[in-house]
Amino acid sequence: MTTAFRFRKMNGLGNDFLVLDARAGVPRLRPDEIAALASRATGIGFDQMITIEASPAGADAFMRIDNADGGEVDACGNATRCIGRLLIGETGREAVTIETRAGLLRAYETGEGERVTVDMGVPRLAWDEIPLAEPFADTRAIELQIGPIDAPILHSPAVVNMGNPHAIFWVDDVEAYDLARIGPMLEHHPIFPERANISLAHVTSADSLTLKVWERGVGLTRACGTGACAAAVAAARTRRTGRRVAVTLPGGVLAIDWRASDDHVLMTGDVETEFAGTIDRATLTWTRDGAVRGAAE
């Protein structure tokens, strides 16, 4: 009995994914198997594993999202664009609906190469929707800081839920802080009962900002789609920018439009299919099509 199954490797602005299709009989992997395959030293290397499944709600597909540490999460904006691109190609339609644990999302063909737009829905802004461990009347700036009380390193983040919880700290230079060191502390802060994605954001104009993200269960990431959406919403709520912004991340630029007509957040950006291959579940070894095992170049 064979234990091998097919996979794709995709990315959205460098935020990279192992994509499996359960509709084709690919098995559900255990958290330890996911973590082993996610290793950039010994595995395929990726931020999240995405499994395409049949949709109980009747959408074009259900998208299951597991972080690199094997923990399942509700939303991933860049992955939604990648799966949207696959389903648009599969169905031949200009728009598809994707079910996630965060709800139903729609992905749209833009007619601009591999660029895809995803309607990420309405941001959740109340303290118990994010969620936080205690009430805050105003989530545009909550009482949270790191460092001495009289001279904090970071303080007063905005918090937004875009399918998962985000905390955004406003800074003058996103590279002036060791996010790899402070990100884990803030991710696991008691104020966040479900942990949180931690972002440093620098507003560069009325319609642009720069963002760096520590993603819960992943670490530093080249791009975070929900993080870009959350930062754009937080910037508009605090009148730092308008409702349409270009968000520059280490992996590239996302166009975010927090639509005034219905409060839905639209995210547009590029996607890429890097390669495909085969995984042997019995040994967790893998082969890239046309290359030797483990070759990623």
Question: Outline of this structure?
Answer:
The strands form 2 sheets. The chain has an 18-stranded mixed sheet that branches. Strands 9-10 form a two-stranded antiparallel sheet. Helices cover 15% and strands 39% of the residues. The protein has 4 helices and 20 strands.
Features:
two-stranded antiparallel sheet, Diaminopimelate Epimerase, Chain A, domain 1, 297 residues, 4 helices, 2 domains, 18-stranded mixed sheet, single chain, alpha+beta, globular
Written description of the protein model:
It is found in: Cytoplasm. A hairpin with a 2-residue loop joins strand 13 and strand 14. The two termini are 31 Å apart. The C terminus is likely disordered. The radius of gyration is 19 Å and the shape is globular. The strands form 2 sheets. The chain has an 18-stranded mixed beta sheet that branches. A two-stranded antiparallel sheet has the order 9-10. It is α+β, with helices and mostly antiparallel strands and 297 residues long. It contains 4 helices and 20 strands. The longest helix has 15 residues.
